[in-house]
Amino acid sequence: MLGSLLTALTAAAERSRAAGRTTSDRIRRFETEQLTLHVLTATVVFLIVLPVLIAALVSTKRAGIVTSIADLAPGGHALSNYRRALIGLEFWRYMLNSFVMSVAVVVGKLIVSLLAALVIVYYRFPYKNAVFLFILFTLLLPVPVRFVPLYRLTTELGMGNTIFAITVPYLASATTVFILRQHFLSIPASLVETAKVDGVGPLRFLWSVLVPMSRAVLVGVSVIMFVYTWNQYLWPLVIINAESLQVAQVGLSLLRGQASTGEVAWSMVMTGSILTLLPPLALLVLFRRQLLETFTIQQK
Amino acid sequence: MSTHEVFTDRLQAGVLLLPTMVVSLLFLYYPTVRAIGLSFYQASLARGDVFVGLENYRRLAGSTEYLRSVLLSVLFATCVVVGVMAVALCVSFLIHEIEVGKGLYLVAVIWPYALPPAVAGLVFLFIAHPNIGIFTSYIEALGIDVNWFSNGPQAFVVVLVAAVWKQIGYNVIFMTAALGNVPESLTETAELDGVSRTQRLLRVYVPIISPTLVFLVIMNTIYGFFGTFAMVDLMTKGGPAGATNILIYDLYRTAFQFYEFGFASAKSVVLFVAVGLLMYGQFRLSDRYAYYGG
């Protein structure tokens, strides 16, 4: 199909060239087109960013009630709002819990998945494909499908209401193992043979060859895992009862409840929303190149 | 056999695989199997577990409320997939066609990927609030009475828009990457021929990036069914009158508001089977129609 399309297109191109379209004509057309494109794209991008821009503006105002576009001028209460949310309403606690949870999951998942990917790429053993399938199949078992028995199990194991409850169940990751496997396979096999000849063991090989050679992918995967963990809502909501142990996502709704009595309710809620958005956003902006690279592997 | 496989110590392999296997078995496979088991019991906090056979499934089959939730979820997920992909494709194409300053637009548009669903829910609750929403008075000036706290279809649309908005960034990441991989020569040929932009997108690019599109349809479907829980919980709590009571929210309520664990397990088994079938169907269909390189 593609072949015939190509031929058709080439033939058509020849014809139009023969018709004699001048170069300057084309350049002028090109420039106006680019201008139109910029205007169009900027508008669309602005619309997509707008809701959070509004939230950010409201977080700088004293009263959060904004009923018309005219009310959108930024207020001078940014500092006091953020201080009040973080310290007065103790939002720092939720942020810290989220942060501990996310870092623990990222580090744990990286170690566990690196070991699994090492075995799957560099070891020969029976039923290897079955093991790989066993890991990949977990993609079909997302938290929402199994959270009722998971709740019972976690409670029975005495892990309910602890940091373990919101970290350990996340440690196995089919996606991470898969991405690492794809990447390891692209590293020349001669490297591992040399290492073997030099008497380098598998763990040394992992640490001093594979990890340095996978830096971009490891960073990309870590960002994906961090964002995923940071954004968890349902599982912490169910398994964590103690308010002081709750994560930022659920803490937001607590903030909404606490603040709704005062007149500053919405500006507090928007302040909390912006605070909750900042960590994953910062990672995305900082590591966007590695992230895009990793996404490309994930697609293959 | 791959030349990468230089290590043969089976014991070592087993030890290194152990963490993944233990966590997968204990926290992924076991709860799934147990959900199937529990679905045959009447299980609640107070009375302990009583075997009731297929009673839970019979209850499900006879519940019009549940049937409504099923239809609602399918409609919601379909609208999410179509909405997200249509918008993301347009945005990605616009960015792809731009020569200078691509990166800036890209960063501005993919950041909703980092946006927590809970934040998306709260921000939309605020800007679309029936009384204090920023655009509410303007929309009402057009003669539409905004009250999605009591109007079901309106609530459905508001949650849907929030869900679509939050997922655009993720899709744009994959689509721009795929568009960037389309051979330059193909674009040039199409351009020289004077093939219009939209035609080029639909006739040339979409077929070539279809493997990416298939991948995204699957990811967006899962998102539509599961990923929007926080938005529903924060914006509508499934209401008004069940208008946004999608399956995952219904399941949560059955388990953690009514504490009917057996009945909830039956619901999660149905959800599991439904999503499994849906993904299988998409894979089969896409295999026939998608263009995979070459």
From TrEMBL, chain A:
InterPro entries referenced in this protein's UniProt entry, alphabetically: MetI-like, MetI-like_sf
Segments passing through the bilayer: 37-58, 99-125, 131-151, 163-185, 205-226, 264-287
Subcellular localization: Cell membrane
Domain ABC transmembrane type-1: 95-287
GO cellular component: plasma membrane
UniProt-listed PROSITE patterns: ABC_TM1 (PS50928)
Gene Ontology BP, a term: transmembrane transport
Domain of life from the UniProt record: Archaea
Protein topology in the membrane: Multi-pass membrane protein
Keyword annotations from UniProtKB, A to Z: Cell membrane, Membrane, Transmembrane, Transmembrane helix, Transport
Similarity-based family: Belongs to the binding-protein-dependent transport system permease family.
PANTHER family associated with the record: ABC TRANSPORTER PERMEASE PROTEIN MG189-RELATED-RELATED, SN-GLYCEROL-3-PHOSPHATE TRANSPORT SYSTEM PERMEASE PROTEIN UGPE
Name of this protein: Carbohydrate ABC transporter permease
The organism of origin for this protein: Haloarcula hispanica
TrEMBL record, chain B:
Primary residence: membrane
Protein name: sn-glycerol-3-phosphate transport system permease protein UgpA
CDD domains, per the entry: TM_PBP2
Quaternary assembly: The complex is composed of two ATP-binding proteins (UgpC), two transmembrane proteins (UgpA and UgpE) and a solute-binding protein (UgpB).
Pfam families tied to this protein: BPD_transp_1 (PF00528)
Family affiliation: Belongs to the binding-protein-dependent transport system permease family.
Any Gene Ontology CC annotation: plasma membrane
One record GO biological process: transmembrane transport
Keyword terms: Cell inner membrane, Cell membrane, Membrane, Transmembrane, Transmembrane helix, Transport
Organism whose genome encodes this protein: Haloarcula hispanica
Segments traversing the membrane: 12-30, 70-95, 104-128, 148-165, 204-226, 261-280
ABC transmembrane type-1 domain residues: 70-282
Source organism superkingdom: Archaea
This protein's record includes keyword Transmembrane helix: yes
Keyword Cell cycle belongs to the record: no
Record's bilayer topology term: Multi-pass membrane protein
Location of the protein in the cell: Cell inner membrane; Cell membrane
